[in-house]
């Protein structure tokens, strides 16, 4: 892997690929719809220089921008160029309840797209996602300024403010953002064996198949020639190079239900002991303790000294006595534990990695606390990959939602699995002499919105901002219904 990979063109690659900007505690995701394509293109032209590229060096406000397939179309990208995008991106998450994608991702019941707050089939189509990150003081001003800038050109469909929780926690109370793949060429990279080929996350670089990921192409035009490199076919222009695909899913977390369920499973115990037992059970579900210490290294009790630890595997724990096979982190990244052996497993897993860039929203609620009126809180799940089907969708469908994952019999991911409504799922904790089974684990996380986006490079953004207004004939020949034979 990587022998022929070329250096990263950092100034071309949006900064979100390199960092989740942890120093900027406030963030906002603005989901926008183009109201006036010509003005929106002008706005985009101005944005190109304002966005962040490369790995961040100094602190300060950051902006990144992504476009959905309908967004690319409304800006004026022609049909042939649009068709060169992967099917997942073109279809997006706008499908109706019960269609293929919602079923495979587990967007059913309360999480069905018809109930979403944004991005569902009945809601206004999202064209542009503008992501703003700043300090607590800076963000309101930045947001106000942006609203002023796009006013008239774009209309706001949905706005989701986020705020990082203290100590890098997510709402259930566990440290998040610890295990991230390092990609080739990334500054500050770790030991060689941890590296994943850059082409798994950035288009235009070799991937884990020693191949260039399929990149979308733009039809030849003077503007395409001016801004985009030649595509592999030697005729069209490479629109994808230095870009990526972004998955955004709003995942609401029911913290009260999570901890009350853990307490129920803990059983009748004196209060302090019940809490300890509930934390132990919850840690088994996650695969790490609240501090972040992995169960694979700290099987008995939490050890904050190991909170950042990420160099571990499951070789000493094939049956999940330390970290259950169905634990969230083991399902989401089985490391060395897949059949037939460790080296094959690592290789397979490197082809299923994602860069997680999500942020929490809503006020915190501490474990075991309750609130009279339930507040909205959760995770804006954001991840980057170059093949949504092979990476994000595979993890969600074939690992997290798969009851038969890695030899388990009936275990859903207890954190984000699509547990059967009313019945719940099973979570197995292997133990001597008898395993423990949590039966009827409810769904703690509901999907409230989602969409797939293209995160273009700086040059691709410039090209898109210079697209010519779409003439009707450029949309391709009108489709006619086949004529009925008249007998
Ligand atoms: C509200 C929903 C979610 C919560 C609360 C959550 C929580 C966590 C926590 C606490 C960790 C351990 C810390 C870390 O390694 O960063 C983790 C790791 C991880 N999660 Fe999630 N997660 C959620 C959704 C998802 C989804 C939807 C996916 C993918 C489809 C996912 C994929 C991963 C991956 C790949 C890891 C790293 C595992 C490893 O490499 O060891 N998570 N998550």
List the helices and strands and how they pair.
Blueprint: E1 26-34, H1 37-50, E2 62-67, H2 69-75, H3 79-83, H4 87-91, H5 100-105, E3 128-134, H6 138-150, E4 154-163, E5 182-183, E6 195-196, E7 217-218, H7 222-227, E8 237-238, E9 244-253, H8 255-266, H9 271-286, H10 328-332, H11 342-350, E10 355-356, E11 359-361, E12 378-385, H12 389-400, E13 425-429, E14 436-441, E15 445-455, H13 458-465
Parallel strand pairs: 5-6
Antiparallel strand pairs: 1-3, 1-4, 2-3, 7-8, 9-12, 9-15, 10-12, 11-12, 13-14
Bound molecules: protoporphyrin IX containing FE (HEM).
Mean pLDDT: 92
Output the number of helix runs: 13
User: How much helix is in the residues?
Assistant: 10-25%
Structural class: alpha+beta
Which stretches of 5+ consecutive residues score pLDDT under 50? 472-487
Sheet of most strands: 5 strands, antiparallel
Molecules bound to protein? protoporphyrin IX containing FE
Number of strands: 15
Overall geometry comes to: globular
Topology order in helix (H) and strand (E) letters = EHEHHHHEHEEEEHEEHHHHEEEHEEEH
* Binned strand content: 15-25%
Report on this model:
With 487 residues, the protein is α+β, with helices and mostly antiparallel strands. It has 2 domains: 10-248 and 453-475, no CATH class; 250-448, no CATH class. Helices cover 24% and strands 17% of the residues. It contains 13 helices and 15 strands. The strands form 5 sheets. Strands 9, 10, 11, 12 and 15 form a 5-stranded antiparallel beta sheet that branches. A hairpin with a 6-residue loop joins strand 13 (425-429) and strand 14 (436-441). Helix 1 (37-50) packs antiparallel against helix 13 (458-465) and helix 8 (255-266) packs across helix 9. The longest helix is centred in the middle third of the chain and has 16 residues, at 271-286. It is globular and about 70 Å long. Mean pLDDT is 92; it is low at 472-487. Bound molecules: protoporphyrin IX containing FE.
């Amino acid at each position: 892997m990587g022998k022929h990979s070329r250096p990263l063109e950092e100034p071309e690659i949006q900064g979100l690929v390199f960092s989740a900007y942890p120093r900027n505690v406030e963030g906002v995701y603005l989901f926008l719809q183009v109201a006036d394509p010509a003005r929106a293109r002008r706005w985009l032209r101005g944005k190109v220089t304002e966005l962040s590229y490369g790995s961040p060096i100094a602190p300060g406000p950051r902006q990144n921008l992504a476009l959905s397939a309908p967004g690319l179309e409304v800006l004026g990208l022609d049909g042939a160029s649009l068709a060169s995008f992967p099917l997942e991106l073109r279809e997006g998450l706008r499908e109706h309840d019960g269609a293929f994608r919602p079923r495979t991702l587990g967007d059913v019941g309360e999480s069905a797209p018809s109930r979403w707050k944004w991005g569902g089939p009945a809601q206004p189509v999202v064209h542009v996602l503008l992501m703003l990150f700043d300090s607590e003081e800076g963000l309101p001003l930045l947001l106000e300024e942006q609203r002023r800038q796009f006013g008239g050109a774009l209309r706001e469909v949905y706005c989701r403010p986020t705020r990082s929780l203290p100590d890098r926690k997510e709402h259930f109370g566990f440290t998040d953002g610890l295990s991230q793949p390092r990609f080739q060429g990334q500054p500050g990279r770790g030991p060689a064996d941890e590296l994943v080929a850059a082409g798994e996350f950035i288009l235009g670089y070799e991937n884990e198949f020693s191949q260039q990921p399929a990149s979308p192409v733009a039809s030849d035009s003077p503007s395409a020639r001016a801004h985009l490199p030649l595509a592999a076919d030697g005729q069209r222009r490479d629109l994808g190079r230095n870009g990526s695909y972004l998955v955004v899913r709003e995942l609401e977390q029911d913290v009260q239900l999570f901890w009350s369920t853990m307490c129920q499973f803990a059983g009748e115990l004196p209060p302090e002991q019940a809490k300890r037992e509930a934390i132990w059970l919850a840690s088994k579900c996650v695969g790490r303790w609240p501090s972040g210490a992995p169960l694979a290294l700290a099987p008995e009790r939490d050890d904050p000294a190991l909170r950042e630890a990420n160099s571990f595997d499951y070789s000493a724990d094939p049956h999940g006595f330390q970290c259950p096979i169905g634990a969230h982190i083991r399902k989401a990244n089985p490391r060395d534990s897949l059949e037939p052996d460790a080296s094959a497993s690592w290789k397979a897993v490197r082809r299923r990695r994602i860069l997680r860039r999500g942020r929490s929203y809503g006020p915190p609620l501490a474990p075991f606390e309750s609130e009279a009126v339930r507040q909205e809180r959760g995770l804006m799940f954001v991840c980057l990959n170059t093949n949504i089907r092979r990476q994000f969708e595979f993890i969600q469908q074939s690992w997290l939602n798969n009851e038969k994952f890695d030899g388990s019999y009936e275990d859903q991911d207890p954190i984000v699995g699509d547990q059967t409504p009313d019945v719940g799922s099973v979570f197995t904790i292997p133990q001597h002499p008898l395993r423990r089974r949590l039966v009827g684990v409810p769904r703690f996380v509901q999907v409230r919105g989602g969409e797939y986006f293209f995160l273009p490079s700086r040059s691709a953004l410039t090209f898109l901002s210079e697209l010519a207004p779409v003439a009707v004939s450029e949309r391709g020949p009108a489709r006619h219904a086949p004529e009925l034979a008249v007998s």
